[in-house]
Design goal:
single chain; 192 residues; mainly alpha; two-stranded antiparallel sheet
Length: 192
């Protein structure tokens, strides 16, 4: 955050990068939902009805996530395109490079989490809700950023503070149910 202030980063560019990262996270989360073989539906309902952990439930949850999360990002895309004006080509290229590098990195994370998902029984509702924390910073900055001054240091700090908080929350959620090394089964009976 200090570097962003010293370098006077453009809030529009930062928000476009964040938007791209959120789309990447959403894409891999959608694939992750579709890849679940065994999952829990504890405390998870659809149309106010409990559901069973079936392939049909998995497909319905993945479809809902794709449409719902995708709609948020389509609206953000339209808003960012209309409200933030034209960015210089160098800024667009830089943002695309950042998002591409993030996608490569996130693919590694996806594969790691997929292996972990196959070794346990994650709750499909938790997996689906996981990336929604990323919506809050974008949403609040779009709603209140102009009150702070659209391209001001205050607006940039507001967004980056919310972004950091969302990233910390997502990290804690993602790693909360990892078994500690001492409780990880090993040896010939581990698969039993």
């Amino acid at each position: 955050m200090a570097f962003a202030l010293v370098e006077r980063w453009d809030l529009s560019v930062v928000m476009w990068i964040y938007w791209g990262q959120s789309v990447v996270i959403g894409f891999f989360n959608w694939r992750r939902i579709l890849s679940l073989r065994q999952f829990s539906t504890e405390n998870f309902t659809m149309n106010d009805q409990p559901v069973d952990p079936t392939p049909s439930t998995r497909r319905q949850v993945a479809f809902f996530f794709l449409i719902h999360y995708g709609f948020f990002h389509l609206v953000y895309f339209v808003f960012l395109s209309a409200e933030r004006g034209d960015l210089p080509r160098a800024d667009i290229a830089g943002a695309l490079i950042c998002v591409t590098l993030f996608a490569v990195n996130h693919r590694f994370s996806y594969r790691h989490h997929l292996e972990r998902d196959l070794a346990r029984k994650p709750n499909i509702g938790s997996v689906m809700m996981f990336p929604y924390a990323r919506i809050v910073p974008m949403h609040l900055t779009i709603l209140f950023g102009n009150l702070l001054g659209a391209q001001s240091a205050r607006a940039l700090l507001f967004f980056l503070g919310l972004k950091t908080l969302a990233d910390v929350i997502m990290h804690k959620i993602e790693h909360a149910d990892r078994p500690s090394p001492s409780s990880t089964p090993c040896g010939p009976d581990a698969a039993a």
